[in-house]
Amino acid sequence: MSPTYDERAELIDRIAQILEKQDFLMHLTRAWHAFGSPVHRMESNLMEVARYLDIDACFFTVPGLTLISFGDPDTHSSETHIVRASNGYDMHRLEQANLISRRLRKGEATVHESIRDIESLMAAPPIFSWYLRIIVCFVQSFFVSTTLFHGSWKEAAISGAMGMVVGVFEILGSNYLTIGYLLNVIPPIIVALVAALLSDHICFSAVPMAATINLLPGMGLALAMLELSSSNIICGAVRLVSATMTSFMIGWGTIVGYNLGMAMLGKENQNAGSLSNAECEGLSMLWWILFIPLSTIGFSVWFKVHWSKWPATVFAAASGLYSIYCTFWVFRFYLELNDLATVVASFVLGMVANIWSKFTGQTAYMVLLPGEMFLVPGSIGVRGFSSILSQEESAKGLGLALQMITTCLGIMIGLFASTFLVYPRGKQYSALLTV
């Protein structure tokens, strides 16, 4: 017996609903990739959304790519979709994508409305213009030079100017592939060359790393450790290799620029591998009370955190950073347990971000990320790999590289511990966009 008209209409409507739900999952996946969602959380988060939509699906995620397999239990068949998106950080739009998913799971919006909202969100421009981001590069490099690399006012000013040059290259690299391929090589050469030419008047080591702060692979290394520890081996290995190669490229560019500058000054025999900032005469630590919040605002603009979230990001970052100095003082001079300082600092930072998320219902990741940029040891890694490239200090370089890995592990432990204490059973309606 052939189906009636009503039965055929009902079947067509059911198939249309299934296809619409699958379309939403693909749109959500693309948005999470493009806006910077933690990859090691995406598979479980997408499974939760698919389970709510009653869709038989499985997901395999690597940075920039997700394979989605939709199954049909009635016909015992399946189809696989490849969702690709460029990786980036846009915390404001990531929060909006998370809110769209949350409204759907609470029944406050339909699947059709959610797809429309996701498409509008993907087409929306960034909340900060490109020229503001270049100005922010000056702010970041200026203050980071004084707080992390013991620079004085002269080194900070030069770092800020060079940071703007790096920012121009980074924005051009996002639009032109040929420039993007050389992004981790050409700017470090230029920065190190200028710093080397001025090395008789400034402390060289306080400039290159501060000027290239947005290129440093510390965040990638920290995420690699998080993903490896959460048994996401493929994602962690990919990020670890990528961050390692980025460290080598930046280190190589820094040494080449340094050697060129020394050759132009007639000082070819100068040691190119030593990037220690121990001899720099930095500013008083009292200035850090002002510089740390300003640096955090700069990172917030770079990661496109909405201005209404800046007080929370500044408070979280300042809490984590000030805890570093307190714990270093206690653990170094009294307990002699220096490695625990990073764990405690990341734990404080994670607790502030997660508690803020718990009471406001907003994404903790946008609060966590700017502050985490102070904790990740990207600069240690670059200094380590720069020393490896110098044959005279290879042992020191390997030691610094090992220190970089152990610091990442300390950050991982602190963040996981804070997330577990605040959300021992996980979140109910939104993704765990914390670590």
From TrEMBL:
Q: Which UniProt keywords apply?
A: Membrane, Transmembrane, Transmembrane helix
**PANTHER family linked:** PHEROMONE-REGULATED MEMBRANE PROTEIN 10
Instruction: Give GO terms: molecular function aspect only.
Output: transmembrane transporter activity
**Which positions fall inside the Threonine/serine exporter-like N-terminal domain?**
23-260
GO cellular component: a single term: membrane
Report the subcellular localization.
Membrane
- Membrane-spanning intervals of the chain: 130-150, 179-198, 204-228, 240-265, 285-303, 310-331, 337-356, 363-380, 400-423
| Highest rank taxon of the organism | Eukaryota
Span of domain Threonine/Serine exporter ThrE: 290-420
Q: Does the keyword Transmembrane helix apply?
A: yes
Can the keyword Transmembrane be found in this entry's annotation?
yes
Which Pfam families does this one have? ThrE, ThrE_2
Q: Which family does it belong to?
A: Belongs to the ThrE exporter (TC 2.A.79) family.
**What's this protein's name?**
DUF1212-domain-containing protein
